[in-house]
Structures are given as structure tokens and as C-alpha cells.
Design a protein that fits this description.
Helix content: 25-40%
Structural class: alpha/beta
Radius of gyration: 20 Å
CATH architecture of the largest domain: 3-Layer(aba) Sandwich
Strand order of the largest sheet: 2-1-3-5-4
CATH class of the largest domain: Alpha Beta
Number of helices: 5
Shape: globular
Number of strands: 5
Oligomer: single chain
CATH superfamily of the largest domain: Uracil-DNA glycosylase-like domain
CATH topology of the largest domain: Uracil-DNA Glycosylase, subunit E
Number of domains: 2
Mean pLDDT: 81
Length: about 180
């Protein structure tokens, strides 16, 4: 029983663009349909594939706000952390287009590289220390620090701020106070 939707055939380049980050081409598997002849979608369940990002960051970096995270199970950020970060940005009257999110776990960069590539005015570090990015000093969590025409803020991982536990609420409030200071909210 064929429906009209089952008869639609998309060109190969459209399928490849739609699924460029989530499909794996396997040349040794016999395809079952014309679509699968182009792209095979089977990925072993026991393996988690994290692709190296094509570009250094997520976002458009329109306002020179660089956010460096350390997420071991995502290219940039996992969905839960991204949703939380988006809500934080919204409260600061910002969005993902205003920032550049760099995952230090998948793309380890020093401050000089970040400065050259992204020209940050603000550098927010989540679960990344100033030593991790080769800064010549340490910054305690939530302390706003000026250096080299850039404003720095370090904080624990976004994961510690998820949920409604007392600890998560405390971390969120500390972060919010620092962000208000940085962005003049």
C-alpha cells in the first residue's frame, strides 16, 4: 500500500545536507531502497559517535561573547545544556547568534587562539579553568575579571545548574548575579 509520500524521491545532495551530522555512510552494506543506496543510516547502538566539528564554534559570534564549555558527550553542547544556556542568554537579552560556543573537550584552544579566531569581548568559561586555556592567572568561580580588553567569568559546568535542587538554584543565582554585572542588566 503506497502513499504519495512514499513515492517522493529527494536528490542526493538534499538528503546529505539534511543529515550531514547524524548519518554514517557504510560502503559494505547492501542497500534495501533507493534512498538507502545513497546514505545508510545504521549506526551501532553500543558506540557513541562524536564528530569533530567542521567549524570551531556554534553560533554567529555577533557580539564577541565566547562561551567555552567542556562537554564530553557532544560536539558543542548536549540538548539539556543548550536549552539551559539559551534561557540564560534570553534573560540577558541575547541569543545564540550573539555568541560563539566552543567545546574545549572536542576543540581544545588556548586564549591566544580564541582571541585571534573569535576576538572575544567577553569570555565565559564553564567547567574550564583559566589554566586550561593558558591564561597567566587563576579566576575563582563567578568573579568577573578584566584582562587584555576582555571580560572573563568562570563557573562550574552547566550540568551543575540543571534541575531544581537547592545546589542547582544556588549555582544559577551566583551565575545570574555575575552576568548582571557583566552585561549591565
Amino acid at each position: 500500500m503506497d502513499t504519495d509520500l512514499e513515492k517522493i524521491q529527494l536528490p542526493d545532495f538534499i538528503l546529505a545536507n539534511l543529515y550531514k551530522d547524524s548519518l554514517v555512510v557504510l560502503n559494505d552494506v547492501q542497500p534495501r531502497t533507493k534512498v538507502e543506496a545513497t546514505i545508510e543510516t545504521k549506526v551501532p547502538q553500543t558506540e557513541k559517535i562524536i564528530r569533530q566539528p567542521e567549524k570551531m564554534f556554534l553560533g554567529d559570534n555577533k557580539k564577541g561573547i565566547v562561551i567555552v564549555v567542556k562537554e564530553t558527550d557532544a560536539v558543542y553542547l548536549n540538548d539539556e545544556s543548550l536549552n539551559f544556556l539559551s534561557s540564560i542568554l534570553g534573560a540577558c537579552k541575547l541569543n545564540l547568534g550573539d555568541v560563539a560556543i566552543v567545546n574545549h573537550h572536542t576543540k581544545s584552544n588556548s586564549y591566544p587562539v580564541l582571541k585571534e579566531e573569535l576576538s572575544p569581548k567577553f569570555l565565559l568559561l564553564f567547567d574550564v579553568t583559566s589554566n586550561d586555556i593558558d591564561l597567566p592567572f587563576s579566576i575563582p568561580f563567578y568573579q568577573v575579571q578584566q584582562y587584555d580588553n576582555c571580560t572573563f567569568l568562570t563557573a562550574p559546568s552547566l550540568q551543575t545548574m540543571l534541575g531544581n535542587s537547592q545546589e542547582a538554584k544556588l549555582e544559577k543565582s551566583k551565575l545570574w548575579l555575575s552576568l548582571k554585572k557583566i552585561f549591565g542588566i
